[in-house]
Design a protein that fits this description.
heterotrimer; A mainly alpha; B mainly alpha; C alpha+beta; A: 12 helices; 74% helix; 0% strand; B: mainly alpha; MetI-like fold; globular
Chain lengths: 272, 308, 356
């Protein structure tokens, strides 16, 4: 009995320590944006909205969120459309060299990271005139995310029975009708997963826009956030905390939405 | 039944082939057209840079100056320069500490412990703990990094206030410890979720029979749980090592400083190549990173294959 | 409506597996035809080749007057029900039934009218707005049938149409399907691995093994006179007794006993020849008293089949089975005698039926 009680106490102590470890760093983000004169200290907020007014007046803050949105949505559209087309063809048609191609894709997606490829990507962007171009950045980000996306969506397609397509085919549907009427609706959850995964990835990505976008007006929130706290002089904590919160809220909402709708699942554990 | 009788797709070496036989009647030509755009993007923006980085490593390319216009092939010079440069070895050593400390020890141990402690629980406690751990994982890196800057601030940071040691400069005195704990905090969610799923797949009857035989908690772990999730542990170790090795976010916290004391390889490349302008030397280090990634990835893929 | 004809139909998969080996088969207009065989015998491949989902390596498929061998599945004017029904989960029942008409560019109002009409005929009128996921297995099957009916195709192809239903529903669906086919009069080919299903529903059937057709016939022909030992062993809810035999004058020596030569083989055997003697347990009369031309031994197992019992006798170390009506069943260990019916017993030479 005493052993049981000791176990209980131990368990709850551990949980309390864990909760503290994961909560304490977040507290500042929850309080500072609502405090009139925030410092690094965590204090009880006085629930002012003045900091949010400052963000609205800030020359780049809101624009950078729009830039993040443009980059994220643009990349997501490109990645979803291209990966779905490719994955469908790879899942259903025995193209020559298909297995080798898939293996190569899986390998590429894990070894060629932003860190390993930053030097040539930077040079490539200069050569192709893609520096300071959001379109260029979208293309580069898509290229990096596509292999893993093709892999994940192919998983979905492979687990969808072929009899749906065959059935439509016997009724006389053309290949494009089959894709439109049958395949896309069937794999819609998979497409949504890829879209969310891409948006989350791009939304948080710092390195690529940091390297490739030097024009402040084109930079996304990740870069502006970094600029705000490393710029010379005293960092403006009002702007920083509030901007950080605004920048974080969309991913949290998206996560809540996804976990409610689909549950949080693993797809082969390829990439986060 | 369907599996037993439905045959593999026919290839076109069957002589009487008259039309495409895949499920949607797509045919190879259209299938090729479906794959082509994605492959084009991947080739230009992923494969080509990876190959080019190797070529660049053999050049004395610089961001500015004479060599920027007219680079020369210098062969293995950059590689020799790298492996004879103490800064490179320092950085490699720091990277090793970073991966070992924050990924292998920090995230795996913490992630498994949380998953194990919460394995039989339902309800609020579980969702709160999991929610917080996942929150740390999904918030944008730039935000999270600044939260830690605030937490570790020497004068009014929350940590020093809690410990009662105002003025203790964590990021200056212990930059590696700081980024290791930071990355543990940031990345534990993945391991937690993976182990949570793995533990859910351990058949309860095995645990029950161990308990009936009188096994203690530790004995159950050792004799029933670990043998079952060995594959997951290996997968987890390889993936998070790979990610941590390539992680650029220490830059957001310490920018490699002070004095290169937290300059892991990812940051080192950036500083040498893009700040210092020595693209050739930076590319040589990138190539080394690629090779290390390749080794880990091949291990991982062989593991996946052997599972199938 | 149309007849189906296969001429020398061959399907070879890469790697050299011959799934269909030069099959010839004629299915007359309006027939309900079963393809029966064990897993991997080629029956599903045959059905899929008829539909055009597999291309033939050789030979031809003729539907009606038209050679469709090289024609796309959608242009063959056949309709197919898949084993898993393949109802589109994102469409409701109406849209599912109307899908073939949508492909044929029939107007929306006309489509819905037609779907409602077919749906009502199959008792689906209350379910037209539901999604397949909200239907029971039996209802899903009827939607799949309705969708096929809406096509007004020349021939229907069913791949294991009953295998996804539970045992009780399967019997109901069997009766329903047979009645429906009779009413529609559309040539229908269905695949099954369940011999009872084939016997119960089909007008005629083909029994397949390893890419070959081993027998074509009506259920009665196939049950009473299996053309070879493969069919003999495959057909029947209790397996046929297949016993080694030797010709001894006008009798056969079977398991150390003497039985008369079956009617079907009279005058076709040579003295001393070694053969296989076959008789169904249903055509074997059991008695506790010795009788002329019967196989005597000790009862080793008695299995309850409901209204009757299956009795296994050990006759000189050879197992012989007989079906015994309820009330007459012996106890294990009793001595018993099994007398095959001479007009139903068969003789196989090298695996093939001996008959005039």
């Amino acid at each position: 009995m005493t052993r049981f009680v000791a176990g209980r106490i131990g368990f709850y102590t551990l949980i309390a320590v864990l909760l503290a470890f994961f909560t304490i760093p977040l507290l500042w983000l929850a309080t500072a944006p609502f405090t009139s004169d925030p410092t690094y200290e965590v204090r009880m907020p006085d629930f002012t909205s003045e900091n949010f007014q400052m963000i609205i007046d800030h020359p780049y803050a809101l624009w950078s969120l729009v830039n993040s949105l443009v980059l994220a949505v643009g990349t997501a559209v490109l990645v979803v459309v291209l990966s779905a087309l490719a994955a469908y063809a790879l899942s259903r048609v025995r193209l020559p060299g298909r297995d080798a191609l898939l293996y190569a894709l899986l390998l590429l997606s894990s070894i060629i990271t932003g860190t390993a490829a930053m030097v040539p990507l930077f040079q490539l962007a200069i050569e192709l005139g893609l520096i300071d171009s959001q379109t260029g950045l979208i293309l580069i980000l898509s290229g990096g995310l596509l292999p893993a996306a093709i892999f994940m969506i192919k998983d979905f397609m492979d687990s969808t029975p072929k009899s749906y397509e065959e059935s439509a085919r016997v009724f006389g549907a053309s290949p494009l009708q089959i894709v439109r009427h049958v395949v896309v609706p069937l794999v819609r959850p998979g497409l949504a997963t890829i879209a969310v995964w891409t948006i989350a990835n791009v939304w948080g990505n710092f390195l690529m826009p940091f390297l490739l976008l030097s024009d402040v007006e084109k930079q996304p929130a990740a870069v502006i956030m970094y600029t705000l706290y490393t710029e010379g002089g005293q960092a403006n904590l009002k702007v920083l905390s509030t901007f950080g919160l605004l920048y974080s809220v969309p991913v949290v909402l998206m996560y809540l939405f996804v976990s409610k709708k689909y549950g949080f699942r693993f797809h082969g554990g390829i990439k986060r | 039944m369907a599996q037993a009788t439905s045959p593999p797709e026919a290839r076109d070496d069957a002589p009487a082939r008259r039309y495409s036989v895949d499920a949607a009647g797509l045919g190879r030509l259209r299938a090729g057209a479906f794959v082509a755009p994605a492959l084009a993007l991947i080739t230009v923006f992923l494969v080509f840079p990876a190959l080019w980085v190797i070529y660049l490593g053999l050049m004395n390319y610089r961001l500015t100056g004479v060599e920027a216009v007219n680079p020369k092939i210098v062969g293995a010079d950059n590689f020799i320069k790298a492996i004879s440069d103490p800064a490179f070895w320092d950085s490699t050593w720091l990277t090793f500490q970073f991966v070992l400390g924050s990924a292998v020890i920090g995230q795996v141990v913490l992630g498994f412990s949380i998953a194990w402690m919460l394995r039989d629980r339902r309800g609020t406690l579980k969702s709160v703990v999991e929610g917080l751990v996942i929150l740390a994982w999904i918030l944008p890196g730039a935000v999270v990094a600044f939260l830690w800057v605030a937490l570790l601030d020497r004068d009014s940071g929350t940590l020093n206030a809690l410990l009662g040691i105002p003025g203790f400069p964590w990021l200056l005195d212990h930059p590696m410890l700081s980024i290791i704990i930071f990355n543990t905090w940031r990345g534990t969610a993945f391991s937690m979720m993976l182990y949570g799923a793995a533990l859910g797949n351990v058949p309860p009857s095995h645990l029950e029979s161990a308990r009936l035989a009188g096994a203690s908690g530790w004995q159950q772990l050792r004799d029933v749980v670990f043998p079952h999730i060995r594959g997951h542990i290996l997968t987890n170790l390889l993936l998070i090592s790979l990610w941590t090795f390539n992680d650029f976010s220490p830059f957001l916290l310490t920018a490699g400083g002070p004095d290169g004391k937290s300059e892991v390889l990812a940051v080192h490349v950036y500083k040498v190549a893009l700040q210092g302008g020595d693209l050739g030397y930076g590319a040589a280090i990138s190539t080394i990173i690629l090779l290390i990634n390749l080794v880990v990835a091949v291990f991982y893929l062989r593991l996946l294959r052997s599972k199938k | 409506m149309a007849a189906i004809e296969l001429r020398g139909l061959t399907k070879v998969y890469p790697g050299g597996v011959k799934a269909l080996d030069s099959l010839d088969l004629v299915i007359p207009d309006g027939e309900f035809f079963a393809l029966l065989g064990p897993s991997g015998c080629g029956k599903t491949t045959l059905l899929r080749t008829l539909a055009g989902l597999e291309t033939a390596t050789g030979g031809s498929v003729v539907i009606g007057e038209r050679d469709v061998t090289g024609i796309q599945p959608g242009a063959r004017d056949v309709a197919m029900v898949f084993q898993d029904y393949a109802l589109f989960p994102h469409m409701n029942v109406t849209d599912n039934i109307a899908y073939p008409l949508r492909i044929k560019k029939v107007g929306k109002a006309e489509r819905q009218r037609k779907a409602a009409e077919v749906g009502a005929r199959l008792g689906l009128d209350q379910l037209m707005d539901r999604r397949p996921g909200q239907l029971s297995g039996g209802q899903q099957q009827r939607v799949a049938l309705a969708r096929v009916m809406a096509t007004q195709a020349q021939a229907f192809l069913f791949d294991e149409p009953l295998s996804n239903l539970d045992a009780r529903l399967r019997l109901e669906a069997r009766t329903f399907l047979k009645k429906l086919q009779r009413e529609l009069g559309v040539t229908t080919v269905f695949v099954t691995h369940d011999q009872a299903e084939a016997l119960a529903m089909a007008d005629r059937m083909a029994i397949m093994e390893a890419g070959h057709i081993r027998q074509i016939g009506t259920p009665a022909e196939v049950f009473q006179r299996p053309a070879n030992t493969f069919v003999a062993a495959f057909i029947g809810s209790t397996p046929m007794n297949l016993l080694d035999a030797a010709v001894r004058g006008d009798t056969l020596e079977v398991a150390g006993c003497k039985v008369p030569v079956p009617v079907s083989a009279e005058g076709l055997l040579t003295e001393g020849e070694r053969l296989v003697y076959g008789v169904r347990p249903e055509y074997t009369t059991y008695s506790a008293e010795p009788a002329e031309g019967s196989l005597g031994g000790r009862v080793s197992i008695v299995e309850n089949l409901g209204a009757s019992h299956l009795v296994t006798l050990e006759v000189n170390d050879v197992a012989v089975q007989a079906v015994v009506p309820e009330g007459d069943e012996p106890a294990v260990g009793d001595e018993g005698f099994a007398a095959p019916r001479r007009d139903r017993a068969l003789v196989y030479r090298d695996g093939e039926l001996v008959s005039a």
